[in-house]
Amino acid sequence: MLTIGAVMMTRMRLNNKIGARYCFFVIIVCLLLSGCILLQKVGPEPQIIASSPREISIRSVKGVKPHIMAAEHCAKHGRQWEFLGGYPFGEPSLAVIYGYSCIEFE
Questions:
Q1: 77 and 53 in contact (C-beta within 8 Å)?
Q2: pLDDT tens for each residue of the chain, 106 residues long
Q3: CB 51 within 8 A of CB 68
Q4: Which of 12, 36, 60, 84 supports an S-S bond with 46, CB 3.0-4.6 Å?
């Protein structure tokens, strides 16, 4: 989006005050739009599917591993977390169920 404003600035003469203001306005709008796009959430929040003092299963989106949520759960029970792996939840879906084990501190 920033390239649109940059191209417009190079094509228009900066001596023209209206053209310069217009290009500046376009660049500001592009920056605001790209900032809003970057602030959007990637997907739904991770959810705890099943938990016990020894294990926890968390449903999340591919690429977002909820290690912090598992660490907090295991710390609540006085244990440390160990990542067991992620398993796809439906083939066309991006959802993954991540498994964690709560093990005793060594």
A1: yes
A2: 556 555 555 555 555 666 667 777 888 887 777 766 666 655 678 899 999 999 999 998 887 889 999 999 999 999 999 999 988 877 777 889 999 999 998 7
A3: no
A4: 60
* Contact call for residues 82 and 70 (beta carbons, < 8 A): no
Q: Which of 81, 42, 47, 82 is nearest to 62 (CA)?
A: 42
Distance between terminal CA atoms of the chain? 52
Burial 8-20, CB ≥16 within 10 A → b, else e: ebeeeeeeeeeee
